[in-house]
Amino acid sequence: MESATAPIFSASPQISSATAVTSNATASGNTLISARNISKTYQMGDQTVRALDGVTLDIADGDFVAIMGASGSGKSTMMNLIGALDTPTSGSLTIAGRDIAKMTTDELAALRNQTIGFVFQQFNLLARTSALRQVMLPLLYANPRPDDLEDQARRRLDQVGLGSRLDHHPRQLSGGQQQRVAIARALVNNPKILLADEPTGALDTRTSEDIMRLFTELNSQGITVIIVTHEADIAAYARRRILFRDGKITDDTSADQRAHHLDHEVER
Amino acid sequence: MTIFDSLSVAWTALRANLLRSILTTLGIIIGVASVIVLVSVGSGARSEVEKQIASLGSNMLVIFSGSSRVMGRAAGAGTDLPLSEQDLAAVRDKVPGVVAISGQLNGSGPIVYGNTNWTTTLSGVHADFASVRDWQIVAGRDFTLQDVRASAKVAVIGQTVVKQLFQGEDPIGATIRVKNTPFQVVGVLGIKGPSSFGRDQDDLVLMPMTTARGQIIGKSQVQTDQVGQVYIKFDPTTDLKDAQEDIEALMRQRRKTQAGEEENFSVRNLAEFMKARTEVLSTMTYLLAATSIISLIVGGIGIMNIMLVSVTERTREIGLRMAVGARHGDILRQFLVEAVTLCMVGGVIGTLLGIASATLIASAAQWPVLISPSVIGLALGAAAATGIIFGFFPARRAASFNPIDALRSE
Predict the structure, then answer these.
(1) In this predicted complex, what is the ipTM?
(2) Does the distance separating the beta carbons of B328 and A106 come in below 8 Å?
(3) Which pLDDT score is estimated for A6?
(4) Helices and strands, number each (H, E), in chain A
(5) Residue B126 near residue B113, CB atoms below 8 Å
(6) Nearest to B326 among A109, A129, A185 (CB)
(7) How far, rounded to the nearest angstrom, does the alpha carbon of residue A6 sit from its chain's CA centroid?
(8) Is the whole model's pTM more than 0.80, yes or no?
(9) Radius of gyration of chain A (CA)
(10) What is the pLDDT of residues B93-111, one digit of tens each?
(11) How many of the other CB atoms lie within 10 Å of CB of A78?
């Protein structure tokens, strides 16, 4: 794990300064996502399931966050809310300055289209569709629809290192390459937030490391990256780790805080 | 998303399940093909019947003598006591509204011109025949009363005879031999076309009634001055139903038919008779229209079924599209476009099949077929409407998915 993190931190010199900003970003008001006492309940037969129970959380613009927790902890529900796929039962949730509880389904669709890029565990690529067309998909739903969508898609595929595989169909690509196509698709609308749900869950260790390095690089370019994972070594790439249990946040630490802990332990 | 984007996605989806897509459209194919066939054949048949009605002559009634019975078997119209010159004169003088009247006594035999011969219908007629039948004389002259009175050996010939016998020569003034009797050709009839029973009406030689009866067709044993069937033309203000009753009453009286006894002649309005045939035709058209509507409905249900399957199969895809920003309207339109595309593919195949079948029927039945662009438009419009109507429910279902559940589905 140490060996995986080391090159990334050393490869991007600006990270250290970014880290310093991040630690007090929540306080400085540079907030991208702001949850105030949000709850989400589901009706399962005559039982009411409380998936989220009064969560208050701020995520700063440009942060790299890992949301962790066991299944049923509420982390997936939190991700659906941050992704504007769902709205909270109570409390207020603001994404990029907009209260999603007050938005119509079409406005939520536009928000997902413009502000959020999704990466899924199973890639969710369309069958029998070339990499280029996969990446063009969000642009087709954009309003206004850009004229140069093919160029934009080509540039994003270049960015993730697949510039030579524009015409390949998912079946002709490896798992890691498929996930790169999915990342290019998530990036094509210049989103503020990249939201990844277990992005390495279907990949081997080596490929996982490549993908996580890509996320780190994207984060260094200013995109807020939020990863939902249950793997500690994946979460280690993030600067901030939020642990969910029973619908509540039980732990919330940033990387320099962890470093302080380590220093203290070394001193002892 | 533009309509072209939707079309491109639809095309990809339909091509992915090519066999399934084509099987699904079978109902539409059959429905559209039958619409094309029925309208094309129907309108062709109708125009043909109308042409035949016009070729009969307007405001016209025909008297046939009755059917005689030989050994209990009816021998057909005109075989009983023939109509006579006296009958013809009585009708002309006593029935109001008669403009022109002529008998037509038919036989057949060989005709020869030079070293060419041809067997044709030989008809003895009165001087008014051409005007009763609305038949043009395109060259030469019609018969005169003098010709008929003098039993002149003159002939007016039909177009088929001109073609068979003269091959480009001018027939006027030529001498032809009819059953070895020389006749001078004085006139040529215009084209009348085939009759409603397919007989070539232009294949005949007309001659004066008196000439025909004396030497060419032969005398009846019972009626020495027979005139065959009698065609009567009335002025346009005459009610043909009244005229028909007048003729029937007159003939019953002349033939001393007892009240209640069956007549041994018949008076017919051939135009009415043929109009009845058009009505049979339109009944058949309605039946076929019902068939094609049912076929389109069944086809539409097939489309709806396969679209529901497609929506279920592609739940994850729908979820993904929603996650990257597709609105409900985008998804709804996507699946509507797919259903309509499916129907239009069926519509185009059905149109080609329909045109092919109609052409085949036309050449097999020797029936004219009119394939008009409006019919093709109607058929394709029906296919598109089927797609919209039956594609709406599956499309609305797809649009109503919750993106979270759709993304999580297997």
Answers:
(1) 0.84
(2) yes
(3) 37
(4) 11, 10
(5) no
(6) A109
(7) 22
(8) no
(9) 19
(10) 988 889 999 999 888 889 9
(11) 28
